[in-house]
C-alpha cells in the first residue's frame, strides 16, 4: 500500500474516495459554494492506494488556530475526511493513514492535532482524547419566563428593557461580514474554539451559519452600535409544536448571550426553542424562573485533542495556579514513552524531561482530554485511566489543568 499527499490533479479522486467510504455522493458544485469539502487543501490531504493503484482510504487536515486556556492562540491541525472503503476495512489501512499523518504533522512542526469524532470508539487508540463537551437545551416557551437576578450589581435583564444594546434580525445573506468579524472576536477568548479561515466563509463550506442554507441571524449591537454577538436560527414548519432551532449563539460576554437568548425565547408562533452547542455549566438554565424549563439532551463529546509534542504543548497554554507535577506519559500508538517535570509559576509553565518518580501516569489520550480544562483529571483517576501515585496528586492536577472558562468548540469540520 502507498500513502502520499494529493495534488490538484488527483484531488477529485480523493473527494470521490472519501464520499464512497461514507456511503455519500459528492454533490455538484454550485455558484456561491456550500459544499463541505470545498475548503479542503490538497497539500494537506492523504490518499492510500493499493499496489495496483486503487484508492482505498483518505485522511486530511486543516490549518486552524486553537484557543488555549489563557487566550493563547496556537496552531492546530484539524483532522477530517478520514475514511476507508468498506471493502478494505480492518486491514490496517486506517492505522497506516493515521500514523503517516501524525508523522507528517510533526515534520511540519505542529504540536497539536484535533478532530470531531464520527464514532467515539475509533480515535482513542490513535492518541486522541475528548476535551470539550456540548449538549442541547430545549426550552418550552410557555415556561420561558426569566428569573430575576438576585445578586447586587448583576447584569441587567434585557427582557425588561433595562439592558444595554439592541438586537436586529437580518437574513444570513446580508450579514456575512458581521458574523465573520464577531466570530473571530469571540473565538480569540474562548478556550477550545477554532478559527474559521477566510476561505471557509468565501466558499461557504461547512454548516450554518457558514453554509448557504437559509437562516435568520439575530445580531446584537452594543450601546455604541458595534456588533458583539449573534444567534443563527431557523423556524420549523407550522405545527402544534413548532420549533425554533438556534445553530449557534456567539457572544463576547454573558450579558450579550442573555440578550440573544431572551430575544429568541420571545419569538411569536413558536412552541419551543432549541439551543445547540450549550457547554456544561452554562448559566442559561439558572436564568429561567422555572429551572426545569430548560431540558438538557444530546450530551456528547465535542473536540478531541492529541498532543504531538508534550513539552511544547504544555508550555504553550496559560495556567492559573502555581504547582508542580511529574507526568509519566505513554503513547502506545507511536511507541513512545516520556517522563516530564511540569512546573507552573506566575501563569507560565516549564516542562522538561526527568527521571524523578511520577505523580501521575497516563496515556497521551488522557493528557489530550485534560489539556483544555474540560475534563477533570481526578475523574479519569476514578475511572481507572490515570494512575495517581500519591493521595494529593489528583487534586494538584485538578487545580493546575483548570481553565478560566469551560472550553467549547462550535465549529464543524
Mean pLDDT: 95
Number of continuous helical runs = 9
The residue ranges in which pLDDT falls below 50 over 5 or more consecutive positions are none
Reading off the top of the CATH hierarchy, the class of the largest domain is best stated as: Alpha Beta
- Helical proportion, percent range: 10-25%
Strand count, sense and barrel status of the largest sheet are: 7 strands, mixed
Q: How many domains, as an integer?
A: 3
Distance between the termini: 27 Å
The CATH architecture of the largest domain: 3-Layer(aba) Sandwich
Total strands: the figure is: 19
Shape: globular
Strand content: 25-35%
Main β-sheet, spatial strand arrangement = 1-2-3-4-5-14-6
Order of helices and strands: EHEEEHEEEEHHEEEHEEEHEEEEHHEH
Broad structural category: alpha+beta
Task: Output the CATH topology of the largest domain.
Answer: Aminopeptidase
CA gyration radius, whole angstroms: 23 Å
Short characterization:
Helices cover 20% and strands 32% of the residues.
Write the layout of secondary structure elements.
Elements: E1 2-5, H1 11-21, E2 45-49, E3 55-68, E4 72-84, H2 93-107, E5 112-116, E6 129-130, E7 133-140, E8 166-171, H3 176-187, H4 198-203, E9 216-221, E10 227-235, E11 243-251, H5 254-265, E12 272-278, E13 294-301, E14 303-307, H6 310-316, E15 323-331, E16 336-345, E17 348-353, E18 360-363, H7 364-370, H8 377-382, E19 387-388, H9 393-400
Binding site for acetyl-CoA: 82-84, 90-95, 118-119
Family: Belongs to the acetyltransferase Eis family.
GO biological process, one term: aminoglycoside antibiotic catabolic process
